[in-house]
Amino acid sequence: MSRRTNIGRRGFTLVELMVVVVLVGVLATLGVVMFRQWVFHTRSVEAFGMVQSIRVAQERWRAEHGAYLDVSTDMTSYYPTATPSRKLWDWRQAAGNDYDRWMLLSPTISGPVQFGYVVKAGAPFTAMAAPNTASQPGWPAANATMLPWFVIEAKGDTDADGVPSYYVAASINGEILRENEGE
Q: Is residue 76 in some structural domain?
């Protein structure tokens, strides 16, 4: 019996193996980057939900009292924390930062929050509060605001890099303006 040799067969070359390793590395890097972006984006869902909840609470307050509730002392008095970060804050346990007025407004809260929130409201024919964002929205002039108004701002730093995300909404439209989303 003769032994057969596999002369025509050969294995992978080092170059082929290196190409495969580089491709797998590139795909893994893209996957990690996309996953991180998705995680940061999902953290902004809280801000959208809370802004909508605050809008509903403001409309409920106006239906009962004829005007919106001016909740925050100023546009830098964030609730439930003055320095929003990755830490979760219990909405109903945070005394200070306009706590009593937030309890009057009573937006629907699903659990602890990462973002800080402010709400300023005003009477007709008064200037709307300016949010803390770099890109200022074009609010109408004071003489053009013929109805009561409110401005909501959410601020958070979900990735703890020192660059906050801002989400701003107002009674004049249904938009939520975003700045540094996912930061």
A: yes
